[in-house]
Amino acid sequence: MAAKKRGGLVYSTAAGRMCPGCLRAAAECVCRDRSRPRDGGDGIVRISRETKGRKGAGVTLLRGLPLADDALKALAKRLKAQCGVGGAVKEGVIELQGDQRSKVQALLEAEGYQVKLAGG
Length: 120
Description:
This protein has a five-stranded mixed beta sheet with strand order 5-6-4-3-7, with helices on one face. A two-stranded antiparallel sheet has the order 1-2. The protein is an alpha+beta fold. The chain folds into two domains: 9-33, no CATH class; 44-117, Translation Initiation Factor Eif1, CATH 3.30.780.10. The protein has two helices and seven strands.
């Protein structure tokens, strides 16, 4: 069975930039609604440590949280305060400075999330 090819309008002089997902004007896009929860995948929050692209400085990454952007930022703020570190939220991934895996695992499990340590 052949895959359905989705071509289409990318830019219109009448509407400006078009969303490739819902094929509407970018200002009217419904597929990137940031108030909806993100797809959390299998329901497991994966915590990993990474140094790639950070000049050797390690960060703790939290992926798979089924939260909307506002709730994700609020959770990141609580985790940063409880761990005493800085961090950021980028593309649905919470980044915390340093190796905070064990602290974050305990905090998230206390809030009812299913957590798995991923990577090395």
